Amino acid sequence: MMHLDGRPVSAEELIGPALYGYGHFTTMRVEDLRVRGLSLHLERLAADCRFLFGTELDTGAVRERVREAAEREGSPLVVRVTVTDPGLELGRPGRDAHPRLLVTTRPAGPDRPGPLSLATVPFERDLPRVKGTGLLGTLVRRRAAQASGFDDALFLDRRSLVSEGATFNIAFLCRGTLLWPNAEHLPGTTMRLLSELAGDVGLASRSASVHVADLPGMEAALVTNAATGVRPVAAVDEFPFPVQAPVVERLAAAYRALPGEPL
After folding, report:
1. In the chain, what are the domains?
2. What is the pTM of this model?
3. How many CB atoms are closer than 10 A to CB 69?
4. H helix intervals, 32-177
5. How far are the Cα atoms of 100, 195, 203, 207 from residue 179, in angstroms, in the given order?
6. Residues 156-208: tens digit of each pLDDT
7. Which of 25, 104, 222, 255 is deepest in the core (most CB within 10 A)?
8. How far, in Å, CA of 1 to CA of 9, rounded?
């Protein structure tokens, strides 16, 4: 289902977002009218709205629209909130903006998804700190990785440092530490929650440079995003990782145990 500011959207109102791709979004998994890291999602939406549109976002309206979608369609549910201005003109993006809330939904997948195989590819996103709607570059790399027999793409910057995936963050286990690559990336809400949970399962958590040549020395790997939570990595390129590492399973269980914030 698709609603704009709480009502069914018209085809005309989708012309601007579809043609120009100027906007930002967040995706959250809703269970029993609760969202893990809801305040982090709202914080990111507000910051990206200020950056892209130069105006404040009504985060209370975001909560209301997401709650309406969950009440209407049930849960668990994956809800995407896109902030866009349907009246945007390609030649005049500098005019006063009037961003609106486009809410779309899809059924939630399993909360214990299977492992992923990843292919490393050189790629640096435009404005990596903004969760923008322009996904062409990331999807081209994902498509190429899947055509090569992998599940997804893992990005390397120009120095061959690991950054992030097409729609996920990645972490590696190394000598009792949950290691997050610090090349330019979008800090995900699940990544931030797991960093806080790491101590509960006996891990330190820190960011550091991770070169592609460092991968054989890592003990395990996992990816995170709000829709699927914590997912083990089976391989990066030709380097295999254990998919049932006990500490990864404990992290995933700790994340699933988070009650979430009420909408």
Report:
1. 2-107 (3.30.470.10), 116-258 (3.20.10.10)
2. 0.94
3. 24
4. 38-53, 59-73, 136-147
5. 37, 9, 10, 6
6. 999 999 999 999 999 999 999 999 999 999 999 999 999 999 999 999 999 99
7. 222
8. 10
